[in-house]
């Protein structure tokens, strides 16, 4: 399996540092608002990566943090006139709801920055003692001159920037043109209100970047096991995030962690590209800014949104349009209808073409995803497979062959996550379906039509076939 490493700018063969076990850190959301579909594109990519690693037989330990203290959360909690904790918890809860509707798997650890302040303080104190960091009037800063590899991950030529590379930056977010010493700790200022923690170098709060350095070391290595032991840090396997985090956030994480432990922070760095809406950068002022809720309110199904977000290659800019979401809706419906129809197989003969079609489709699916998660060709091979089976005639498949196909579809869905879970029908809906079957039997077609409309309101479509009435869930 090959993955594109932002560090080397090359596709590299993937091999975790400990055999069979992958330790992965994923920068999670800053809970100051609902996540938008651009964020969700990254989270869906990270979910597919995680699921595919598991499909390949790796054991995955993934940490996804909450940046529950930074410039934005403090600012907006004050605007909302509620405590930082109450404010961020509200958006953390909403984040989990969005992930559930998009069928994003739970990861192993969800640390919150505010619950790791002592670890951050220990890390900063150590950097100060090493002389890699220094104290100034408004905070503790990392000295980028003291870290020879600064700029290597983000591929910034520091020499070319030297003119502008002066001074210090207190803000959590800044542009490449402003490369400068960045804040590890910000001394308390009245704008911070009651948000502050004690530290030997002065009361205040952490900068955004140091939060991830502390939480990754804490949950993926033994660095903070019974005390503080920089020598016990072990390079992690994969660090992921959206491409907008590459600089300054990830570059600064590298500086802090490597400046402290003197080992590579992560073996692979994976970044998901931006999502555009109608070929433009998403922004509230352009009126093209969408959260998941905005889209679901228009009547789209969450699984269709998931399909759309995962269907293009993660390193390509994705252009979101409602036409493409309509197409994704059709695609998800096709996958689900195909699996549902397998239940109707009642042929008597086993066909050797079925097993060979599965074998070919499986090989094509895996070789595509092994190539840096090349999703469009993986999906194309699955459509080809469904066409082949449809040509053989699903009704004519033996029950045994249908089971083989079903098993394969469930296998690929452990990666894609686009098949709807076969929930039990609610009692009301089951009654309506039975009632309609009955109406047809006694040739009361007017009543059968009424019931069809009634079922549609419940998201169920009924079709009349030569083998009786068939129902399915509708995705639009
Ligand atoms: Zn981070």
Rg calculated over all Cα atoms: 26 Å
* Small molecules (ligands, ions, cofactors) in the structure: zinc ion
Structural class by secondary-structure content? alpha/beta
Give the termini separation.
36 Å
Helix content: 40-55%
Q: Assign the CATH topology of the largest domain.
A: Rossmann fold
Largest sheet: 5 strands, mixed
| Main CATH class of the largest domain | Alpha Beta
**Using DSSP, what is the number of strands?**
16
Oligomeric organization of the protein chains: single chain
* Overall 3D shape: elongated
Number of helices: 15
- Tally of separate domains: 3
CATH architecture assignment of the largest domain = 3-Layer(aba) Sandwich
**Fraction of residues in β-strands:** 15-25%
CATH H level, superfamily name of the largest domain: HUPs
Given as residue ranges, the uncertain stretches (5+ residues, pLDDT < 50) are none
How would you describe this structure in keywords?
3 domains; 476 residues; binds zinc ion; four-stranded parallel sheet; Four Helix Bundle (Hemerythrin (Met), subunit A); Rossmann fold; alpha/beta; 15 helices; 16 strands
